[in-house]
Amino acid sequence: MNSSIFSNIARFIGLVFLQVLVLNNINFLGYINPYLYFLFVLLYPFNSNRSLFLFLAFLLGISIDLFEDSGGIHAAACLVAAFVRPHFLRFSFGISYDHQTLRLAATPFGARLSYIFLMVMVHHFILFSLEMFSFSHILLILKKTLFSGIFTIILVFLSLALFSKKYR
């Protein structure tokens, strides 16, 4: 239990600093930005206290907002993604999630891909919709969501491969 708490605290702090010090300076073609800090929301224990998880997702987003001076858009996007996460877990993993026997590293690749894809795309769509805040820019919102989402998903899978105990 204590090692889980400490690893989640270290993951939270490490991802915030990685995002604000390194990844926020990456901008490919003007609209592709990686948002690896969202890995915290993806990997947070599935059977934990839901209220605490929503609070931590908000805290993660507001931490990024404070460093970026972005007015709460990351907090809103993280909170929405954290709120819909149980539905995407049930959709992607089915009975394993319902019986609380889910371990992300032990799941089939297709189920893991669908979960990560859905979560990242919802997060990015909310993030860029709030950033633009105009339906007249819907094509730009969709383009930024798609390309930044794909780049983020690639970074998530690389991070999982590098830091997962299963691959060591």
Structural domain tally: 1
Beta content: under 5%
Stretches where pLDDT falls below 50 for ≥5 residues? none
Radius of gyration based on Cα positions: 15 Å
Q: Enter the CATH topology name.
A: Arp2/3 complex 21 kDa subunit ARPC3
Give the number of DSSP strands: 0
State the secondary-structure class: mainly alpha
N-to-C CA distance: 22 Å
Classified by CATH, the class is Mainly Alpha
CATH architecture annotation name: Orthogonal Bundle
Shape: globular
Overall mean confidence score, pLDDT: 87
Biggest sheet features: none
Report the order of strands and helices.
HHHHHHH
Keywords: Membrane, Transmembrane, Transmembrane helix
Transmembrane segments: 12-32, 75-93, 113-133, 145-163
Protein name: Rod shape-determining protein MreD
Descriptive overview:
- By secondary structure, the chain is an all-alpha fold.
- It has one domain: Arp2/3 complex 21 kDa subunit ARPC3, CATH 1.10.1760.
- 71% of the residues lie in helices and 0% in strands.
- It is built from seven helices and no strands.
- The radius of gyration is 15 Å and the shape is globular.
Write the SSE topology:
Layout: H1 2-21, H2 39-43, H3 50-68, H4 73-93, H5 95-98, H6 109-132, H7 138-163
Helix pairs in contact: 1-3, 3-4, 4-6, 6-7
Question: What would you say about this model in short?
Answer:
Helices cover 71% and strands 0% of the residues.
